[in-house]
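Q: Can someone sanity-check these two? First one:
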Amino acid sequence: MRRWAFIVWLSLTAMVCTGQDPQFSRFYSNALYMAPSFAGSTGQNRLALSYRNQWPSIETGYQTYTASFDHYFEKLHSGVGLLFLNDIAGTGNLTTTNISLLYNYDFKIKNRIHIRPGMAFSLAQRSIDFNRLVWRDQMSAIGNAPSSGEVVSYENVNDLDFSVSGLVYSDLFWLGLSIDHLLHPNQSLYDQEYEEGNSALLPTKVQAFGGCQIILKEELLRPKPTSMQLAFLYKNQAGFNQLDMGFYWNRAPLVLGIWYRGIPFFNEIANNDALVLLIGFQSKQYNLGYSYDFTTSNLMVSSGGSHELSFSYTFGKPSKKRRPKKMVPCPDF
């Protein structure tokens, strides 16, 4: 009964909601998805994979996959990256697929302080499996009819998108801003692109992010000291606001983290979403992390929380001119 009540509530609210992008609780494990300015931020080659299973207690929850590769060209002071994202939602397997090409340029504005403007071009595709849907005229007291009179739309739509970002960083802090969906790609499967007031145009998303690294204990013979990283991410899209804030504790090879997502104050409606716990293992080349979202909103146990798993592999020779191997001191998880 609780599950059916949740499904009914979700169906009703969907009538008045404006869609937002897929999201990750551990956004630094998907740094290229957050901002193109992070392409090449390790100073080496990086291959990263992520998987998120949101609301597993609901049969038609959300599953999101990403794969990315980025590289830093030291002589050109440039970072480039390639990002693939696939998001699947709902009974009809509503699928969003994005392939993005990212670029940024690294300016040195002061000793140990750099600024990185970046941009990303994306090809976006949206599709659905109509054979998995049940329409109103198929439903009856004696069972569902095999066919419907509903007009079937296109199986998929394609559009282009563009994003920009900026990042300021040093050895101990970083601060940035990204603006996504500047071309407002059309997501309608009924080709309403040129209709006035088309609600299927993806709204612009603005993100502000930053943090600092604190060295807690540095030993002469330890290549990686004990450290803590404080970080935040603020999002605004289609009138929806969200704030993620927390910290990481790192003593190689172990990484622990705790996060809170929500804005319980300063809103007309309290936004109290989730508490996120992270555990990760880190080596010179490999990072493996897992996190779980404990839902703190009214969904509570009905949703089953969210699981996230990430893996990254960094390889190649680090920059000889820079002191640290890693350029931007943000987390890897």
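And here is the second, same format, sequence then tokens:
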Amino acid sequence: MVEFYRGIWVVAYRELLRFIQERSRMISSFAFPLMFLIVFGAGFNRIVGTMTEGVDFIKFMYPGILSMTVVMSSMFSGMSIVWDREFGFLKEILVAPISRTGIVIGKAIGGSATAMAQGIILLLLAPFLGISLTFILVIKYLLLVLLLSLSLSGVGIFVATRMRSQQGFQMVMQLLIFPLIFLSGVFFPVDNVSPWLQVIAKVNPLTYGVDAVRQVFLEKDLLLATDNVADAGLGVTVFGHRMGVLEDALIIGILGFVLLSAAVWSFSRQE
């Protein structure tokens, strides 16, 4: 059992070390969400106006951008598997005294750690957007980020086990990530779109991550404007029930367990 956890730590540490050493990856991972926030925020804030009382478009979009950043980083954590396969290092990992389940968990933890680091740095923007941070809010946010990043990293690892080139992996991930982002409620309330689009959005696991993070960040502003957060019209409604943070987290956790199990199964079939 000690060797199992040690193997997980070694794999996770290697992922962290690689991220720190790749400065271009660090810069691009921060620049991309900032670009979205600045371009979309500056371009649509005046046009869209307030999403509800006390919440303008930038405030509404900011929690979604945080979730988007975490998901993109965690889903691309599978890139290291493809890189290792191309350069022959994957064979050395597979013959090492580490279980394949431990390798997948280590990859997921390493990807989640890098995603959380990016999410923490982007918190520095909150005061400039008129969002006050509290200790409880930050703790709730970090727990949600950890759950979301671990869950979605399963997608990246699963896809990586099926890819043989970095170019192919990047293409597939782009095809997956952009629909996930644009259909998750990052830029619009999910319940205010066409019924057919609502169905697609509510099948999207990222939708519940965005909703949970948004409720954590905007709860105070909404309570000041309305007596009940649900009265503000934000959130995701499933079968007539408006989801709360804990319910969103439960859905993410269940999906994460399924996705990571699929990644472990697929990686265990590697030869």
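A (reply): Looked at the second one. The mean pLDDT is 78. The beta strands are 50-52, 55-56, 237-238, 241-242.
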